[in-house]
From TrEMBL:
An example Gene Ontology biological process: mitochondrial respiratory chain complex IV assembly
Keyword Mitochondrion included in the entry's annotation: yes
Family affiliation: Belongs to the PET117 family.
InterPro entries in alphabetical order: Pet117 (IPR031568)
Pfam families: PET117 (PF15786)
Protein name: Cytochrome c oxidase assembly protein
Length: 76
């Protein structure tokens, strides 16, 4: 086998290995980014549920206080 063939084979092999490694790392990074998106979405849903619960509790307290106290609007 000539020297040129050996160099070509070596460069082709190294290029193929480099491409496989690059694609594997890109897939790993994409998978991690997608997982982070899921975690972020779950956190946003949890915060929304908490805020909704806080609003409902606040509304219930307001109704309870309105029963106990006579509140007049500032418009009258």
């Amino acid at each position: 086998m000539s020297t040129a063939s050996k160099v070509t084979l070596a460069l082709t092999s190294l290029s193929a290995i480099g491409i496989v490694v690059f694609v594997h790392q890109a897939q790993t990074n994409d998978k991690a980014a997608m997982h982070a998106g899921v975690i972020r979405d779950l956190e946003q849903q949890r915060l929304k549920r908490e805020r909704t619960a806080d609003f409902a509790m606040s509304k219930a307290l307001e109704e309870e206080y309105r029963k106990i106290q006579k509140v007049q609007d500032g418009d009258a």
